[in-house]
Write a sequence for this structure.
């Protein structure tokens, strides 16, 4: 519907802001992430929500050291991505999830 398209477009725009905040090391990066997660939870979780969920998982690890909550948000991101296409939004979420969050849960291989 047009309402869903509007919400997805808003989330896609917010994803660009998240990516910019990450690249510029903005002190507002966590705040923006939390705002997007709240928006998603209030207005519907879509493929475009995955990046903010992955970022929140990262913040749970990096800022609070809470591995259980980080795993929760990583699993939520995985569920969203399992049903998603190969869009730019999904690709950004996969890169962030696998590069910054999931690496904490994978066993190290002996070399």
């Amino acid at each position: 519907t047009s309402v869903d398209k509007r919400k997805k477009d808003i989330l896609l725009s917010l994803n660009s802001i998240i990516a910019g905040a990450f690249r510029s090391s903005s002190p507002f990066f966590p705040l923006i992430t939390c705002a997007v997660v709240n928006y998603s939870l209030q207005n519907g979780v879509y493929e475009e929500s995955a990046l903010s969920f992955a970022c929140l998982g990262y913040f749970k690890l990096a800022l609070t050291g809470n591995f259980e909550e980080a795993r929760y948000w990583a699993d939520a991101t995985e569920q969203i991505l399992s049903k998603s296409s190969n869009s730019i939004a999904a690709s950004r979420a996969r890169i962030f999830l696998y590069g910054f969050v999931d690496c904490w849960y994978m066993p190290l291989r002996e070399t």
User: Anything to note?
Assistant: The first helix runs from residue 2 to 23. The chain has a mean pLDDT of 91. The two ends are 52 Å apart (CA to CA).
